[in-house]
Amino acid sequence: MTSTFESLRQFLYEHSGLALEGDKLYLVESRLLPIAREAGLPDLAALLKRLQAGDRDLGQSVVDAMTTNETFFFRDRAPFEKFRTVMLPNLLAARAAERRLRIWCAACSTGQEPYSLAMLLDDEARRLTGWHVEILATDLSRRAIESARQGLYSQFEVQRGLPITMLLRYFQRAGERWQINEFLRSRINFREFNLMSDFRSLGTFDAIFCRNVLLYFDVATKRDILARLARALAPDGFLVMGSAETVIGLSQAFIPHQEHPTLFVHKATQRQRPELMLVAN
Q1: What is the C-alpha to C-alpha distance for residues 78 and 196, in angstroms, rounded to an integer?
Q2: Rg (alpha carbons) of the chain, rounded to whole number
Q3: Residue 279 falls within a domain, yes or no?
Q4: Model pTM score
Q5: Do the beta carbons of residue 137 and residue 191 sit within 8 Å?
Q6: Beta strand segments in 91-196, E
Q7: Exposed, middle or buried: residue 214 (CB in 10 Å: 0-12, 13-18, 19+)?
Q8: How many distinct structural domains can be found in the chain?
Q9: Predicted confidence (pLDDT) per residue in 230-251, tens digit
Q10: Does residue 251 fall inside a structural domain?
Q11: Does residue 100 share a domain with residue 30?
Q12: Does residue 71 belong to any structural domain of this protein?
């Protein structure tokens, strides 16, 4: 079992960047044995053999099962409030000529984060008249992206962080669940995407939300992803990370704001424009 576990750890690392610690055998067994049985396989060794033979659908199921998809609407709240009151005004002023904004929610899970941003942007519709605003939301998990596209959430999920006024404004009943209205769903481009892939095909963004995902990677992978995020972010753009995440010791491209350490900007831009009022949670 030890060799099988080590090989599965390597598979997950190569295909998702997930760095499982050596004491997570119980987690692998609890999440992957049901996948094996569903595929008609007797144990993890048989599952590994199928993966090594190149079964892509099974590989996707394995990655989905091992990916943490914990999220909720307006999670941690402060980044969303600061997006409205500081980040958005700065970006609107900086992009007044082209009147175009691009936002990327990386590792969006089942969609609560990009939908939260879309609700805020719709609430600011007057300020955005004549603007083209694009929200790209990506996740490694095919299952999560399919769920996000549908915009269907349980009563429990809509009770986690979502103000009742926004529930009534943007959702309608769908049986025992709630569905985000078509207008808001159409505002977001959901796409299956692996953060281990090349970002260049995605273009450049004015704001990138990459929260609570880098903490699952090892140091080398964190450095690699941050280097590629730096190239994907506009010189005067904003990178928002989770409250437990940092670029310190991992990136030479970004620096944290001295008062708000979970929002990051390009080092060169911050030195040139120290007057920027940058914020984070």
Answers
A1: 28
A2: 20
A3: no
A4: 0.86
A5: yes
A6: 100-105, 132-139, 152-153, 171-174, 177-180, 188-192
A7: buried
A8: 2
A9: 999 999 999 999 888 888 889 9
A10: yes
A11: no
A12: no
User: How many whole angstroms from its chain centre is CA 94?
Assistant: 25
The token pair at 100 is 């175009």
Are residues 280 and 78 in contact, defined by beta-carbon separation less than 8 angstroms?
A: yes
Among residues 233, 197, 242, the alpha carbon closest in space to that of 68 is found at 242
Q: Which CATH number characterizes residue 12's domain?
A: 1.10.155.10
Q: Same domain, yes or no, for 127 and 147? A: yes
DSSP 28-86: HHHHHHHHHHHTT-SSHHHHHHHHHTT-HHHHHHHHHHHS-----TTTTSHHHHHIIII
The region that residue 203 occupies, defined by phi over 0 for left and psi between -120 and 50 for alpha, beta otherwise, is left
Residues 35, 61: contact at Cβ < 8 Å? Answer: yes
- Dist CA 178 CA 162 (whole Å): 12
Where in the sequence is the domain holding 257, given as residue range(s)? 78-272
pLDDT tens digits, 93-151 = 999 999 999 999 999 999 999 999 999 999 999 999 999 999 999 999 999 999 999 99
Residues with a catalytic annotation lie at 31, 139
72 within 8 A of 109, measured Cβ to Cβ: no
